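Propose amino acids for all 497 sites.
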C-alpha cells in the first residue's frame, strides 16, 4: 500500500480541473493541481475513471465504450506543443470554452482537430512500438471497434452486418483494409494519453501524492470489450444480453436500480483463469497507486435482472466463484492496492472477503444521520483505521446541498445532536469535514466542492438523471492560497500532514 499513515486528500475528476480547453487535462492543469495539493498538506488525489466518455451515454466515466482505453478529452494540447507536434500559434484559435462547466461537445471537436494535426506530424519511435506491444491485448480490439463505429455511423455493434458483429475472421480482415489511416490515428491517441498519464503519475510520486483511480465493475454492452470477448458475457443466440446488472429494491429505491450492463459469464472466465479480469486489474494498477473497485459486492454475488425488464424488482442473486477469483488475484497481482466500494447493504461474506484480501472499505459521512446513529457504519465513532472516510462521493449532493435541500427533518436533528452544531455556528460543510478529518480512518477524502462550500450547483452526478451530470468544473480562483492554508491547517491539526 502506498501510504501507511494518516493522510487526507481531494476527490476531483481530471475533466473538472481548472483551465484546459473545454476540459481539464493531464498536462499543466493536472500538474498545477498536484502542486496545490502538496502546498496544502494533501497526499491523496482521487480522480475517478479516466476511460473514454460518450455524449450518447451522458458523458459518464462509468459508462465507457472501453474498459481499457484512455479518454482523449484528458489529453493536453500544451504537451503536444512541447513534443513538437503542434505549434503554439495553432492553439489560440480555439472557441471560448466555459470556465465553470466541462464543455464536452466543443472540447471533443477541438481535441479531434488538434490530435489529427499532431498525428500528421508524428513519427513512430521505439517508445511507441513498445507501447503497442505492451497494450496489444486490448488496443487492437478497441481500435478496430472504434474505427468500425465510424464506418457504421455510430450504430451499436449488434446492428452491424452479421459477419462483422459475429467477428468472422475473413469479414474483419476485409473491413480492416478499408479503414485507411484511422486505426493508426486511434493508436496514436492512446499512446499520447498513456504517455501523459505516465508523466502525471511520476509528478504525483515526486510530490508524495497517492493517485487513486476507479474501476467500474461492469462494462457497457456497446463496447469493444463485449464485442471482442462475447463468450465472456451472458449473451443469447442473437448476441443480446440474457440478463442485466442492477441492485435490488432497498431503502433508497422501491424498484431497485436497473443499470442494464451485460453480466459476466463467470464459468467461462474461470476456465481461462480469469485472464481478462487479471489484465484489467493490472492495467488499472499500472496507472494508479490505488484502485477503488466500484460495487465490490458484485464480485461475490450479483443481482441478475431479466433483459427487457423496466425495473430491477424481478432480479435474482447469483453467486460468483469468488474464492477462485480472489486466489487468481493473489497469484497474479502480488501486493495490489485496492479499495473496495462497500456501500449499501453488505452481507458478511463481502466483509470477510475484504478482510481476507486486505482491501479497505469506505465510509461516507453524509450517510451517517439517517436511521439510528449508534450502530451506523458511516458515523465517525464507528470508523476503523483501515477505512477510507469520505464526506460524500461523486453520486451524492454536496454537503451544503444535502443540508439545505435533501436532508429530512430527522436527519438534520440527528446531525445537530451529534455535532453539537447550533444555528449561527460554522457551516455544515466545515463541520462534516472536521468530523471526517478528525476520525481514526487512515484515509480521509473530501470532494473539492465541499471545501468550497458549494451547494447543489456543485453536484457532480445525480444517478438516474440522463443529462447535465459530470459538468462541474473548478475555476482557477477556487484554488486560492487562503483555501490552501485552510486545508493545510486542518491536515496539521488532525495529524494528516
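Proposal:
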Amino acid at each position: 500500500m502506498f501510504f501507511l499513515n494518516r493522510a487526507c486528500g481531494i476527490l476531483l475528476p481530471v475533466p473538472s480541473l481548472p483551465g484546459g480547453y473545454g476540459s481539464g487535462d493531464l498536462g499543466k492543469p493536472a500538474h498545477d493541481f498536484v502542486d496545490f495539493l502538496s502546498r496544502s498538506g494533501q497526499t491523496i488525489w482521487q480522480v475517478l475513471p479516466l476511460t473514454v466518455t460518450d455524449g450518447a451515454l451522458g458523458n459518464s466515466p462509468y459508462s465507457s465504450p472501453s474498459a481499457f482505453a484512455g479518454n482523449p478529452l484528458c489529453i493536453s494540447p500544451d504537451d503536444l506543443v512541447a513534443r513538437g507536434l503542434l505549434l503554439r500559434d495553432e492553439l489560440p484559435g480555439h472557441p471560448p470554452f466555459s470556465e465553470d462547466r466541462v464543455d464536452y461537445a466543443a472540447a471533443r471537436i477541438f481535441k479531434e482537430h488538434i490530435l489529427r494535426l499532431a498525428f500528421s506530424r508524428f513519427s513512430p519511435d521505439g517508445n511507441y512500438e513498445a507501447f503497442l506491444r505492451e497494450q496489444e491485448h486490448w488496443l487492437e480490439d478497441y481500435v478496430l471497434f472504434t474505427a468500425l463505429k465510424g464506418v457504421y455511423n455510430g450504430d451499436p455493434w449488434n446492428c452491424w452486418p452479421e459477419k462483422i458483429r459475429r467477428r468472422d475472421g475473413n469479414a474483419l480482415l476485409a473491413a480492416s483494409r478499408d479503414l485507411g489511416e484511422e486505426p493508426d490515428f486511434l493508436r496514436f491517441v492512446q499512446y499520447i494519453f498513456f504517455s501523459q498519464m505516465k508523466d502525471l503519475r511520476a509528478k504525483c510520486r515526486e510530490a508524495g501524492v497517492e493517485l487513486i483511480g476507479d474501476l467500474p465493475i461492469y462494462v457497457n454492452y456497446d463496447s469493444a470489450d463485449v464485442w471482442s470477448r462475447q463468450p465472456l458475457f451472458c449473451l443469447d443466440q442473437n448476441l443480446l444480453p440474457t440478463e442485466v446488472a442492477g441492485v435490488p429494491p432497498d431503502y433508497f429505491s422501491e424498484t431497485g436500480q436497473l443499470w442494464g450492463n451485460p453480466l459476466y459469464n463467470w464459468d467461462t472466465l474461470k476456465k481461462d483463469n480469469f485472464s481478462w479480469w487479471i489484465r484489467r486489474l493490472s492495467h488499472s494498477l499500472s496507472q494508479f497507486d490505488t484502485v477503488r473497485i466500484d460495487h465490490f459486492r458484485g464480485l461475490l454475488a450479483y443481482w441478475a435482472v431479466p433483459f427487457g425488464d423496466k425495473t430491477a424488482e424481478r432480479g435474482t442473486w447469483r453467486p460468483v466463484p469468488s474464492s477462485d477469483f480472489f486466489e487468481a488475484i493473489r497469484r497474479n497481482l502480488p501486493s495490489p492496492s485496492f479499495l473496495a466500494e462497500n456501500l449499501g447493504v453488505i452481507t458478511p461474506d463481502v466483509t470477510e472477503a475484504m478482510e481476507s484480501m486486505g482491501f479497505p472499505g469506505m465510509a461516507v459521512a453524509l450517510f451517517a444521520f439517517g436511521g439510528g446513529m449508534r450502530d451506523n457504519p458511516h458515523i465517525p465513532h464507528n470508523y476503523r483505521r483501515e477505512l477510507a472516510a469520505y464526506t460524500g462521493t461523486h453520486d451524492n449532493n454536496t454537503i451544503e446541498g444535502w443540508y439545505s435541500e435533501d436532508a429530512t427533518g430527522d436527519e438534520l436533528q440527528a446531525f445537530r445532536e451529534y455535532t453539537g452544531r447550533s444555528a449561527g455556528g460554522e457551516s455544515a460543510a466545515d463541520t462534516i469535514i472536521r468530523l471526517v478529518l478528525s476520525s481514526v480512518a487512515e484515509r480521509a477524502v473530501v470532494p473539492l466542492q465541499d471545501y468550497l462550500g458549494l451547494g447543489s450547483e456543485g453536484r457532480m452526478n445525480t444517478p438516474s438523471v440522463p443529462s447535465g451530470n459530470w459538468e462541474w468544473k473548478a475555476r482557477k480562483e477556487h484554488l486560492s492560497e487562503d483555501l490552501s492554508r485552510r486545508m493545510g491547517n486542518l491536515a496539521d491539526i488532525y495529524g494528516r500532514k
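The longest strand covers residues 210-215. The chain is about 40% helix and 10% strand.
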